[in-house]
Specification:
419 residues; Molybdenum Cofactor Biosythetic Enzyme, Chain A; 41% helix; Alpha-Beta Plaits; homodimer; 17 strands; 3 domains; 25% strand
Chain lengths: 419, 419
């Protein structure tokens, strides 16, 4: 099986100032094409270390993918490492990349600076895959079999995540042309509302009965719930059949906790349900501060079903904009089922949407109104009436807000399903 | 200098299904304490690979920190690797952790399952740091100097990010008790509104004149702008003096593009400015869909200055809730300075806030109203009048929305600064 090592370069990663999201993206793309990632590494802006991990990576793997260390600023030294490793004897300007640099910068009204121009220069033993989304090109360094006992290739990508993502298609084509790839099969089942350990007990019998060549992983995420992933490595004629049989069994056990059978978000599922019904939604948010609306509108085309939201952080906005009665806030508090219901009804009236969902809770760090940190009330309003429900979480502010928002989306999903 | 290697365990990371955020968090904490992270690695749920990277890590570093692979479900195998590496001869139950497991689960109304109980069992040669936030304890394995030529310690943390974060304080104490730590000095300067390459040209002279022992890094981020980081490694009496001299020089060159001198977000800076002035804000959002409000309310205590928001995605909500005249939308379109101004004025009137900021733009993927993808109009309204400004970006939908929101926050910052 063709394997790869992913190396991320940058002091900013090693000191923890930025989180490396490129490795996950690259790994997903390689996996889809049938390349197995055997390890991921991050090292600092240190030429010797970069050389070492590339060379070690090539001894153990067919492919090494390097990201980062190609920006226009002086802390980037990856290019000189590739120069030395490839045995280059000079730099050459890649005219396709130079043209892209020119077009990109002038379209933004920027001057083409000497530092930009220099980014089109590459070591003469490297070939180039132009980067259409940014100034630093992808460099490809291929070694003959003698050197590492197998065809060994280094791809060097820019560190800017959307540029790295944009380059992957060309890199996968290049890999396909140089290696004969085997297969990996994955099946993803998305669940919401059951904690990982409870889920594990619930499906223990099913899990033990899985065919031995099928691997199962639990992937918990605050916004997505627990994702279950089935994997079959290597060529398999019946992987898809096994996946669909096992998914059916799982759905019998878990019922409506299963919200999708592929990498999908709750906001996409809710959006699709609304689109199918030809119905619209609005949100009224207190503790989530606009996060539910932001998630719903992160989906392209959300304007087909999402009308708008009122973030009613202050009591005055709850009362004056949403029409929540001061008696409710005075009598029950803002974190109450009565307030959640009035907020949902209020925003539905205001926007004229078919459905409305509200959140009012206490994300922390400090408790308010003597209500627990981690408590949220969700209200759902439609022409059929108004429902409220409470959820309890035990995390920090950021994470509680995410769980509140996801619980609200999941409540909407179930409400629409049973209309 | 005391060094560490950070190893993240899990197939879900290697296949790219989740992004590893623990390594960055751990690295920041180690760095603050004076431990240098020399590398980060991720390997799959494979006992041999986990053993290999831990042992290689211990040969090269004083400390190896392992995260993940300790969950209650069957795909986690880190504990058995530690059993073997530590030469344990049995498992013992840690009663402090067992008590925590019991308290945590019963407080959530959950049963204590056998899988939960088993999480308190640790290899008998490991010591335990209790994990107060979750069920899996932190395990500590310390080897005598003979084995690796230096005191070598493995810390094994749970993979759940907030549990891992919660354990770091105790781990740092343990490291301080076993190693004499040297120092790392960092100074962070946050800038917004100047792209990385232009910034680099602008400060090239200053950068060349930096003392040779001061390292500079550029850390671009869509929500934070470009962070500049100065670093001095090793003991230094004058690091703070050098940092403050250099920061002053930098501020003369960059002016109000510098918004903070430590790790701070734009939403925190805007919040502090509002708090100091005793003034309030509201937002009216179209393309950002609640993201500006969500960022502002992610800061604890935001209720002191944030009143609320109207997300006016549909024309009808712009008109009926915010009072934007249909003539504006008909005549200029929703993505226009006229609409941005009317939205900001409208939400200020509605909520009674001192300031209001609005966004209306086109995040993509498809163009609308014949306006460019990546164009956003920001409106700011206060008693002194209403301003609008446009920004142009060239990214995907998610990234454009982030840049739109950050630009709106930065516009508010500058507006308040010059009031």
């Amino acid at each position: 099986m063709t394997t790869a090592s992913i190396c991320t370069i940058g002091d900013e990663i090693l000191i923890g100032q930025i989180v490396d999201t490129n490795s996950a993206m690259i790994s997903r793309e390689l996996g889809k094409a049938g390349v197995r990632v055997s390890e991921m590494l991050s090292v600092g802006d240190d030429g010797r270390e970069i050389s070492r991990v590339i060379e070690e990576g090539l001894r153990k793997n067919d492919i090494v993918i390097v990201t980062g260390g190609l920006g226009p600023t002086k802390d980037d030294i990856t290019k000189s490492v590739l120069y030395r490793l490839s045995g280059s004897t000079g730099y050459v300007t890649d005219n396709r990349q130079l043209e892209i640099i020119h077009d990109l910068l002038t379209s933004r009204g920027l001057d083409v600076l000497e530092t930009n121009r220099r980014q089109a220069e590459v070591p003469d033993r490297c070939s180039v895959i132009p980067n259409r989304l940014g100034t630093a090109p992808v460099m490809v360094m291929r070694f003959p079999e003698e050197k590492y006992g197998h065809t060994a290739t280094v791809y060097s990508l820019p560190g800017v995540p959307f540029e790295a993502a944009g380059a992957m298609k060309d890199i996968i084509s290049d890999i396909r042309s140089a290696y004969s790839l085997s297969e990996i099969h994955h099946k993803t089942i998305m669940t919401y509302g059951i904690a990982e350990s409870a889920l594990s007990e619930k499906i223990a019998g099913w899990e033990s009965a899985l065919p031995s060549y099928v691997r199962l992983a639990y992937l918990p995420d605050p916004l997505k719930g627990v994702t279950l992933r089935l994997s079959v490595y290597g060529a398999s004629d019946d992987a898809e059949t096994v996946f669909s049989t096992e998914t059916e069994k799982l759905k019998k056990i878990l019922g409506d906790a299963v919200y999708a059978e592929n990498e999908t978000t709750l906001q996409q599922v809710v959006g699709e349900l609304l689109r199918k019904k030809g119905m619209t939604i609005s949100t009224a948010e207190s503790c989530t501060g606009g996060l539910v609306a932001s998630l719903l509108t992160s989906v392209p085309g959300a304007s087909d079903y999402f009308l708008g939201s009122v973030v009613s952080y202050a009591y005055s906005v709850k009362e004056n904009v949403l029409g929540v009665s001061p008696d409710i806030i005075g009598g029950y508090g803002a974190v109450s089922p009565e307030c959640a219901a009035a907020m949902a009804d209020g925003v539905r009236r205001l926007t004229g949407s078919d459905f409305a969902v509200s959140t009012t809770g206490n994300a922390g760090p400090a408790a308010s109104e003597n209500k627990d940190v981690g408590l949220v009330w969700v209200g759902i309003s439609s022409e059929y009436g108004t429902q409220t429900m409470d959820f309890h979480f035990h995390n920090d502010r950021i994470r509680n807000r995410e769980r509140f928002a996801a619980s609200a989306l999941d409540a909407v999903r179930k409400y629409i399903l049973y209309q």
